[in-house]
Design brief:
The complex is a heterodimer of chains A (about 210) and B (about 100).
Chain A lengths: L18 H30 L15 H26 L3 H31 L17 H28 L9 H31 L1
Helix pairs in contact in A: 1-5, 2-3, 2-5, 3-4, 4-5
Chain B lengths: L2 H32 L5 H23 L7 H24 L10
Helix pairs in contact in B: 1-2
The chains are: A mainly alpha (about 210), B mainly alpha (about 100).
């Protein structure tokens, strides 16, 4: 006997949304708390440190033009993601594949740039536990930098893996249940936009301030 | 899907493109502001205001929160309340470390 998960396509009569959509938003709310805890730690540590002991992103050797370019890459991947979903809504599978494939490619570009940034830091013997050499007392700037960007990069990797599965395997659902696939892409999109949203706060916090 | 539905989605696409352009412009604005070397406190406030506007655009339009069901908004409101508490916590520890404001 097969069990069918209810309200995958039809909205639940009480909540007005599908099970999947409610689920992803609850998950994203927990993600807000996860990243929120780290941001809160950042505030605590920065406020606790003397001003002269806290490097700006530039002083810490972060490359603002590269960070800006990577921000634009992620923002672009958000619009291609929403266009992928809109393409399915308009019954255009070929356009969906193009936009969705571009979203995945842009996610990979983001990761490659991030990998270059990391390897540059490692090349300069800067690691998560490296203190700020100019400071009178050790700063945790790099610890925060690697933790926050590392956790974010893990989210990008997870998003890419899920999207790759949807592009090559999940898409088969289009033949039998178009609405269900469209719903799944919307949910994958909500996760992807959230990853973009986190970066929108990470970029100025770490690179610019 | 009916013709009117397709037209509806087309209208949405115009909004998505506008939001995308706004996000790109605001990214450049954020970086531009950082080159002005404003006082730290003011710079942090300004950068967070711009970031919040950008996040609002992503959540409101790309994530469709602007037309989302109430149950989702309630979940997020509850989340925002807890997040607020999370950000109040560090302020409590600040006593004795000198003033946060002005820097």
């Amino acid at each position: 006997m097969s069990v069918v998960i209810p309200y995958q396509v039809e909205p639940h009569p009480v909540t007005g949304v599908t099970s999947g959509k409610l689920g992803i938003w609850l998950f994203l709310a927990s993600e807000v708390m996860l990243f929120g805890a780290l941001f809160s730690s950042y505030v605590l540590l920065r406020v606790g440190a003397a001003v002269e002991n806290w490097p700006t992103g530039v002083e810490a050797g972060l490359n603002v033009p590269i960070g800006t370019a990577n921000t634009l890459v992620l923002i672009t991947s958000s619009i291609t993601m929403v266009m992928a979903w809109a393409s399915l809504k308009m019954d255009n599978l070929a356009a969906f594949r193009r936009y969705f494939g571009t979203t995945i490619a842009l996610g990979l570009v983001f990761l490659v740039v991030k990998a270059f940034e990391y390897s540059d830091k490692f090349g300069h013997h800067i690691f998560p536990a490296t203190g700020w050499p100019e400071a009178g007392d050790p700063s945790v700037f790099y610890g925060l930098y690697f933790t926050l960007t590392g956790l974010h990069a893990l989210h990008v990797i997870l998003g890419i893996l899920v999207n790759l599965w949807l592009l090559f395997f999940g898409v088969a659902l289009w033949k039998t249940d178009k609405e269900r696939l469209t719903g799944r892409i919307e949910i994958a999109g909500l996760y992807w936009h959230f990853v973009d949203l986190v970066w929108i706060f990470l970029f100025p916090t770490l690179y610019l301030l | 899907m009916s013709e009117s539905d397709v037209e509806h989605v087309r209208q949405h696409i115009k909004v998505y493109v506008t939001v995308f352009v706004a996000l790109a412009v605001l990214t450049v604005v954020t970086v531009g502001i950082s080159y002005l070397h404003l006082p730290t406190g003011f710079a942090i406030t300004l950068a967070m205001v711009v970031a919040t506007v950008k996040a609002g655009l992503v959540a409101g339009y790309f994530m469709h929160l602007i037309s989302e069901e109430k149950v989702i908004l309630w979940v997020l409101l509850l989340c925002a309340a807890f997040l607020f508490v999370l950000f109040i916590l560090p302020l409590g520890t600040q006593i004795g470390n000198g003033p946060l404001w002005p820097l």
